[in-house]
Here is the input.
Amino acid sequence: MIITDEQINKLKPYIENIDDLIQKGDVQDLLDAIDDVIVDNILGNNDEPDEEGIELQKIYDQIYNQN
Here is the structure.
């Protein structure tokens, strides 16, 4: 799995088991975890992502494209 330290550090506050997901090596599991956080963000903001949600979506897209 290709993921940068910067991406990991940005995701750690949202995904408690990110280290386990990375070690497991299944990109789809990590993307699913990020997507869950994005959906929670959208639902908490009148069905629109805020800046935090937009940043998470960018990280999701980067990891998807890197792998």
